[in-house]
Write a structure and sequence with these properties.
With 440 residues, the chain is an alpha+beta fold. The protein has helices at 2-20, 26-33, 74-84, 95-98, 115-125, 128-139, 142-155, 187-200, 204-212, 291-306, 427-439, and strands at 46-51, 57-61, 90-92, 112-114, 172-174, 180-182, 215-224, 227-238, 250-258, 262-271, 274-281, 308-310, 325-328, 339-341, 343-350, 371-373, 380-385, 388-390, 398-406, 409-418. The protein contains 11 helices and 20 strands.
């Protein structure tokens, strides 16, 4: 009888708890009823799976948490060098570059390297000194290059990212107001940066060619009478992005590690008209180097198994809703008539994911072609247009929008404009109408 008595006491205590705290089990119940909740766990403290084409986050685990990102920083260094430099230029190594810690190419002060060669050193072997030579060549100093990195981050919608170094070594900086900033990003921002590198950058093909190369060899140079000749040292770089051989469709990626950041990774995969990006921060510490590969494959497989490509044209707007708009005080062809103006949808379309408040952002990845959706998801269409206008109205005046949304996030916007001008009623028009009436 004693075990039964204890059981009854436990049941009574549970019922009493529910009476006193009715919301106690609500979070648990809600979670249990969410059929779409992934049935996996991750090693990474912060993780994001992103649709690279639209910028839509398909899965996240603390994806907005600001954290250090180690050498995944170098994807920004690489794309900025490609966009702002000449690969055939020769860059000189400074004493500061030569002082960088491992992992390093072991450049020597005064040596020259082709920028192209340094980019392979940067992305395949993750050499910290190569990153500094690149930064100083492009911007004159690592500080100026960091300013370029931060500006680029803002341009592509990464507002929780702050770069201090071109190589991702742990660093802090003190602003003029005394605020201390850390070299850091979020998994969401890191995924956006990679999406930009492989989808939208004018140098995306060059970026992919470098990051997909298995191995690369080159030499240093010295300057003699204005000419660059071989400097006598040769180097061999091997790609350490093991993910490239782990999954069919693996596209690109970059590893990273510092004692503060832990193991980090950002990688991309393209298959069946779908491009996924995974970003992982703090994905274990030594001796857990393989955790990042496990998490990456888990998230990529989740994306491949649960999301399908859908063209945004599947939710095409019913253009029969576009009616002429009444124009108050507008001129007509006869006295007493009501003026109307025809409207039309402007194409080509301007498209972009939304900001956190659901509004359109100009600098996010394009979603012209489509978006990845789960089976139970759909694209909603929101049509907003003026019901009446006041003359004068110029042709090409924006009078409405058609927004395409998924889960209240805007991924595409069409703009509605007037097709012609409508002048306002004035003395000349009134006089001409009166004369016309009495002439008849």
């Amino acid at each position: 009888m004693k075990p039964i008595g204890k059981t009854l006491m436990k049941i009574t205590a549970l019922l009493l708890s529910l009476l006193l705290f009715p919301n106690l089990l609500v979070p648990l119940a809600v979670y249990a009823n969410e059929e779409d909740t992934p049935d996996f766990s991750l090693y990474a403290q912060s993780a994001v799976l992103m649709d690279a084409a639209s910028g839509r986050i398909l899965y996240e685990k603390d994806g907005q948490k600001v954290m250090p990102m180690a050498s995944t920083t170098k994807i920004m260094t690489c794309i900025l060098a490609l966009e702002n430099g000449n690969p055939e230029d020769y860059a000189i190594a400074s004493s500061y570059a030569a002082s960088m810690p491992k992992v390093k190419l072991y450049v020597k002060e005064g040596e020259y390297y082709r920028l192209k060669d340094l980019l392979y050193s940067l992305m395949l072997e993750s050499h910290n000194d190569a990153a500094v030579v690149i930064a100083e060549h492009i911007a004159g100093s690592t500080q100026s290059f960091a300013d370029m990195m931060n500006q680029k981050a803002k341009e592509i919608g990464c507002h929780d990212t702050f770069f201090i170094t071109p190589n991702g070594l742990d660093a802090t900086a003190t602003a003029k107001d005394g605020t201390v900033r850390v070299h850091s990003t979020t998994a969401a921002d890191l995924a956006r940066i990679m999406s930009y590198c492989i989808m939208d950058s004018p140098k995306k093909e060059d970026f992919l060619a470098i990051t997909r190369t298995p191995s690369y060899s080159f030499e240093n140079y010295r300057e003699t009478d204005g000419q660059f000749v071989g400097g006598g040292r040769t180097f061999q770089c091997n790609n350490h992005n093991a993910f490239l051989s782990m999954m069919d469709g693996a596209l690109s990626g970059k590893t990273g590690f510092t004692g503060t950041a832990g193991y980090c990774y950002v990688g991309a995969l393209r298959k069946d008209n779908r491009t996924y990006v995974v970003a992982l921060l703090a994905c274990g510490w030594p001796n857990n180097k393989t955790y990042k590969w496990s998490d990456t494959k888990t998230l990529m497989n989740y994306g491949l198994d649960h999301f399908e490509y859908h063209s945004l044209s599947e939710a095409a707007f019913d253009e029969s809703q576009l009616k002429p708009i009444k124009v108050l005080n507008g001129q007509t062809d006869r006295l007493g008539a009501t003026a109307y103006v025809d409207v039309e949808i402007a194409r080509p379309l301007e498209t972009a994911p939304s900001s956190e408040n659901g509004e359109h952002t100009d600098n996010a990845p394009s979603a012209d072609d489509g978006i990845l959706l789960k089976k139970d998801e759909s694209i909603q269409v929101d049509f907003q247009a003026a019901t009446e206008l006041t003359a004068p109205i110029e042709a090409g005046t924006q009078v409405g929008t058609i927004r395409y949304l998924v889960d209240e996030t805007v991924y595409k916007i069409e703009y509605i404009f007037t097709s012609q001008s409508v002048p306002a009623i004035d003395f000349s028009w009134c006089l001409s109408q009166i004369l016309q009436r009495y002439t008849l």
